[in-house]
Amino acid sequence: DGYSWSGGTQWNTNGVWTHKSFNVLAKKSKHTEGNSKFEVKWWTYDPAEGAPPSWGARQGGDDAPAKTSYHSKINWDWDSGQIEGVDDHYIMAEAKGWVNITTPGLYYFSVMHDDGAHLWVNGTHMVNDWTQGGDRWTNSIIPVALTGPAKIQARFYEHTGAASWKLAMKGPNDSAYYTAVAYSNPDFPAYPGVMANIYLYP
Asked: What's the first-to-final CA gap in the chain, in angstroms?
């Protein structure tokens, strides 16, 4: 969110100033959004698609979601009414982010969903229930071995009626599932930007 200036070397020819250069780094802060939260993209789809809809039926596709939002948790139970201000029904969403793993070991994941849901953890397909139906928890059948931050990719769709979408996890020392909380993206650069030289001439 600003600029960092360095350099400032000046050249002279017979005492006459000819030009001056600066190194400029246009930098961006380490934002909370996109870093320590789940990024969630929301789409609508054509009701004629039916249920369950194909993932490719998202109106606008990857480049044009109806809305993009950032959340520390995937923890919704809308019951009825608009889903995140997008629409009442015919909604698809995808959340991407990270969770922190403080105790290495085997982890189980669970998704509450109405209607369908998918979940991948570090690329492993943990939950696969892209089907019509009311509120239910779908648990991963087998655990995944995790050490350090784990990458989350979750998908959800709602056709009509009430809707819900929640993500929970359970580690080697946990007796019950707990709500998954987003963690800082280990790949997120502190200061992405562009380095450039600026030359000023009289």
From this structure: 30
Q: Which residues contact 24 (CB under 8 A, 6 or more apart)?
A: 3, 4, 5, 6, 195, 196, 197, 198
* CA distance linking residue 69 with residue 83, whole number of Å: 12
pTM exceeds 0.90, yes or no: no
| Neighbouring-strand partners of residue 6 | 23
Residue 123 CA from chain centroid, whole number: 14
For tokens 């989350």, name the residue.
152
Count the Cβ atoms, other than its own, within 10 Å of residue 98: 23
C-beta separation of 22 from 5 below 8 A:
yes
Sign of CA dihedral 59, 60, 66, 71: positive
**CA 47 – CA 53 distance, rounded (Å):** 9
Closest CA relative to residue 177, chosen from 127, 124, 114: 127
Q: Write the pLDDT tens digit of every residue in 105-140.
A: 999 999 999 999 999 999 999 999 999 999 999 999
Give the C-alpha separation, 4 to 29, whole Å: 12
Distance CA 7, CA 21 (A): 7
Residue 35: DSSP 8-state: T
pLDDT digits (tens, 9 = 90+) for 26-80: 444 444 445 689 999 999 999 999 999 999 999 988 889 999 999 999 999 998 7
Q: What are the tokens at 74? A: 């995937």
- Alpha carbons 75 and 180: distance in angstroms, whole number: 9
